[in-house]
Amino acid sequence: MEAICILRVASLFITVFFSLILLGRILNLFFFFEKPFLLRSDTLHVLSLIFTVSLFCFGIWYENQTDFRFLDTLFHSLEYTLDTVALSFKDEAVSKAVSESECYSIAFSLSYISSVVVSGSLILRLFFGNVITAVRLSLVKKAKHTIVLGDDVNARTYASQLKTPVVLWHLAKIDRQHYKKNLINVSHMITVDYLKKLVHSAKGHFVSFLQGDDSIQFLKILGDFLTEYPSCNMMFYLEYAHINNRFFDEIMKKFPHLIYPFNTYEMCARKLILDHPVSEFLTANQVDHRTALVKPHVAINILLLGYGKVNQKYHALSLFCHVFATLTDGILSGKEVNYHVFDRDSEIINPDFYEYLQYESSLHRLTGNVEKCDYFDPPHRRDTMSYHKMDLFDGSQYENISRLFTPGSYNQILVSFDDDSKNLEIALKILESIERWGPNRNFDFQVFVRIRSDSFLSLPIVTELLKQKRIIAYGSDQEILTEENIVQEKLDSIAYTRNFYYQLSHGQSDKTPLALWRELPYNKRLSNRYSGISIPFILFLMGISYMDVVSGKVKKDEFLSLYDPDNTLQWDDNSQIKYSLDTLRMRSDPRHVLAFIEHERWTAFYLFCGYLPMKKSEIHLIKDSESGKMIPYKDDHARRLHACLTTHTGLIEYRDLLDALYKQAGQPQSLIDLDVIKYDFQLMDYLFEEIKQPAQFTDQVSRRRLKNH
Q1: Whole domain around residue 310: which residue ranges?
Q2: Whole-prediction pTM value?
């Protein structure tokens, strides 16, 4: 009998407890005036109720074995629960059991007291928690803050590192103990009304780490919200690693100035290129810092051990960030970088993964005989990737790698194949093999290993190994998931300052820099960002550290003495550079070499994006809808065509074609106005203006520059 009583009390306690939790959830919904729904965190509550019902059934079955009737037992069990919830002791069976059994009395008392305490505290926490959260939200919206949406580890890691006030909006309960006091925890469903409550009239950044169906649902809701509030002050940063649908494409087209997609794998690769560009490790025997030219005999090899998402992104970014130049028979030309992929999975190389890899065959199919075709001098495909199938844990196969290390070469090895410990194991094995080859060969190398876990990286034995073996670790979550890497304010500052000077020399002087930036198509904004990413790489070609320039250790005059030793730079009274056809003529001094590299980088980026050269016969003059002036039809982003996808020789021919078109239209222009080569000089010509410029131009500076122009 006592066992039956204990089962009844246990089922009573569990039923009361979880019923009140679910009741609190319903009250929570009414508090926010939202439609009822079932959060993923309620799965635990549902399972608990199933357990409660199962416990009831077991008690009923047990009592039926002792000749109790099923319906009577069920009725009494429910009656106990209702009486307890109503704070009543009128049930005679309960009173009798309490008086006759000391065990039942103790169990019932503890169960009853616990239910009252827990239920009361739950209701109080529910009420005061919502009130306090609502007040904190109303206060934080008045200041610049960050809203982080997501349940996964990336969202939590990012939120935990932010210094500004943070609203962590998640769809499941999260333990708050690892977060700072500046965090506001919000667990709520995704709705347009709640998005309005959080975002409308707020200032700051909105970062979403949602994936899968949740991401698609959020995109639909975000599209509806931005349609209603297109002048929203929040910038939306969306992780797009798992987004591939029409909603994402539509929202990017409608609101390109508010949506900033990001990818954690790309951020990892980008940060490595920014922090450690290949040019940082080239010696004076491999690159002439006086001209920024790589010596013709030097081979540059990038070895990707493992071809997962990080190394794939590094390969892609490296194609248009690591662009070298050399002299071939006294003529300025591009210097190829040799990419070698080592992986045990031969199917990991997808020929359709990069449209860029298909460029060469597409170009040949379009142009046929270059001398007789309707195209300018075609650019060269820069990807020389070769694939090697290999078991990376088998050190005996490393001889295949050693054959690439030719005398005088630089070899960069990136290990991103497996988990942290295995990546480090491979890196140590490859380093041991290289040290055996080194004494007999004259080559340089650098080994990088991806280690995601900061706890693993902080182990004393790992730290000591990396220090002793001269291995550089990269890609830890806390290093990548930062505001600087996702929001990119510094990089964007360089990018739209760069765009400002381009537009200024292009005749667009009636708008602010930020307005010009927001009007750019997404691919043009990306191109400007990647030009900013390439700056540290370019400076190392000159033997200058980017951090020395930013910190002021290298002054502008010192830089210009290295960058422009022939004093070809000329400035007008409005602090603008005066370009002439003579100063744009290709030479082998740093300024002209770096302009050549910038055009090669720009070309590589557009080819990677799937663009192809435009036919000469398609180029014509059209009337600009805003200014009313005649402008050249030279690019078509819908068809992915661009007339400037050519060499510098082709750009001169393009300029002559424009000259003939304007003369034919009775509106002759100066050749320097028609020239596009001058834009390739601007990245480094205005370097100090780009680096020193704040994230947003002041109205005074903007008006002065625009007025003077």
Answers
A1: 267-344+390-485
A2: 0.78
